UniProtKB/TrEMBL annotation:
Major site of localization recorded for this protein: membrane
InterPro entries: DAGK, DAGK_sf, UDPK
Annotated positions binding substrate: 66
Organism this protein belongs to: Thiospirochaeta perfilievii
Signal peptide annotation: none
Name of the molecule in the record: Diacylglycerol kinase family protein
Ranges annotated as spanning the membrane: 28-45, 52-76, 96-116
Family: Belongs to the bacterial diacylglycerol kinase family.
Keywords, sorted A to Z: ATP-binding, Cell membrane, Kinase, Lipid biosynthesis, Lipid metabolism, Magnesium, Membrane, Metal-binding, Nucleotide-binding, Phospholipid biosynthesis, Phospholipid metabolism, Transferase, Transmembrane, Transmembrane helix
Lineage: Bacteria, Pseudomonadati, Spirochaetota, Spirochaetia, Spirochaetales
Membrane topology: Multi-pass membrane protein
Binding site for ATP: 73
Subcellular location: Cell membrane
A GO MF term: metal ion binding
C-alpha cells in the first residue's frame, strides 16, 4: 500500500510539474497552442499512421525541450535574480536547445505536410 501511494505521489508530482510549466511559462503556452493546431490540422488532412507517429515524436521533442528549459529557468532564478555571466550562458544554451528542436520539427513538418497540401 505504501509502495502504491509513493508511486501515485510521484505521478501527482509529475502532473503538477506539467501544470506549473503550463501556467507559469509563456513559451510553454505558445508551444502548447501550436501543438493543438498541429493535431487539428493532422486530423483534417487525414495523416497516415506513420506521419502521425512522426508528428507526435516532434511534438514530444519540442514540449520536452521546453519543459527542461522552464526547469532550468527556475533553477537559475533560485540561485540569482542578479545579472550573472554564467546564468546568461546557461539560459541562452537552454533556450538554444528549444530553438533547435523547433527548427528540426519545422523542417520535418514541411516534408510531411507538403504532399497533403499539393
Ligand atoms: N540572471 C541573469 N543573468 C544574466 N542573463 C540573464 C539572467 N536572466 C535572464 N537573462 C538573459 O535573458 C534571457 C531571457 O531569460 P528569461 O529567463 O527571462 O527567459 P524568458 O524570455 O522569460 O523565457 P520564457 O518566456 O520561456 O520564460 C536569457 O536567455 C539570458 O540571456
Amino acid at each position: 500500500m505504501h509502495r502504491i501511494n509513493s508511486v501515485l505521489f510521484k505521478f501527482k508530482c509529475a502532473f503538477k510539474g506539467l501544470f506549473i510549466a503550463f501556467t507559469s511559462d509563456n513559451s510553454f503556452k505558445i508551444h502548447f497552442a501550436a501543438t493543438i493546431s498541429v493535431i487539428f490540422s493532422a486530423i483534417l488532412l487525414e495523416f497516415s499512421k506513420s506521419d502521425w507517429m512522426i508528428i507526435i515524436l516532434l511534438i514530444g521533442l519540442v514540449l520536452v525541450a521546453e519543459l527542461f528549459n522552464t526547469a532550468i529557468e527556475f533553477l537559475v532564478k533560485l540561485f540569482t535574480d542578479d545579472y550573472h555571466e554564467l546564468a546568461e550562458k546557461i539560459l541562452d544554451i537552454s533556450a538554444g536547445a528549444v530553438l533547435l528542436s523547433v527548427i528540426i520539427s519545422i523542417i520535418i513538418a514541411v516534408f510531411i505536410y507538403l504532399p497533403y497540401l499539393l
